[in-house]
Amino acid sequence: MIIIYAITVLLLLISFIKSPQKTKVALKKAWKKFSKLLLPFLIMLMLVSVVFFLIPEETIVKYMNDESKWFSVFLASTFGSISILPGFVAYPLSGILLKKGISYMAISAFTTTLMMVGIITFPIEKAYLGTKITIIRNLISLGIALITAIATGLIYGEIL
Fold it and tell me: I want to staple 110 with a disulfide (CB 3.0 to 4.6 A). Which of 44, 61, 80, 87 is the partner?
């Protein structure tokens, strides 16, 4: 990450040297967009934190460890779609779920939808991309997540 920050600062300095006025205008526009996005994003993070506090890990494991692999995939993709977690939390959580006996297919569906499908982020996406594009993006992401879960099931022998 430090390299990305360093490159960004370097490019910003180059931009400022080349055209200080344009750089200042661009930074003002960026700040306005950031400040508009900050409040909805913070509210969304707080809501997700409350939901994960109220729904214990045991409940998630109980419902995702169903005898029917397809029902488990459905529930896992639903949990993943309505959640939002950073990767550094999602992947260790997936490891815990795997140790609790959750199938690879369900974990694949959970992590893929967690990263790609955004029901909670829908209002923010809609504001920037529009309703139609947001719905299409989420449906395509859900399709990719389900294909990934099926491929994972085939690779790990959970299907057939």
Answer: 80
For residue 128, what are its two tokens?
Answer: 């920037």
Q: What is the pLDDT of residues 141-157, one digit of tens each?
A: 999 999 999 999 999 99
CA 55 to chain centre: 18
| Rounded Cα–Cα distance for residues 150 and 105 (Å) | 7
- Verify that 81 and 29 share a domain, yes or no: no
Q: Structural domain of residue 34, as residue ranges?
A: 1-38
Phi/psi of residue 151, each to 5°? -60, -40
Stretch (H or E) spanning 91: helix 87-99
User: How far is it, in rounded angstroms, from Cα 160 to Cα 154?
Assistant: 8
Task: Confirm whether 47 is domain-assigned.
Answer: no
Which pair of structure tokens corresponds to residue 80? Answer: 């993943």
Give the model confidence (pLDDT) of 18-63 as tens digits.
999 999 999 999 999 888 878 877 776 677 667 667 777 777 777 7
Cα maximum dimension of the chain: 64
Q: Please give the single-letter amino acid code of residue 34.
A: F
Residue 43 lies in a domain: no
Look at residue 44 and tell me if it is in a domain: no
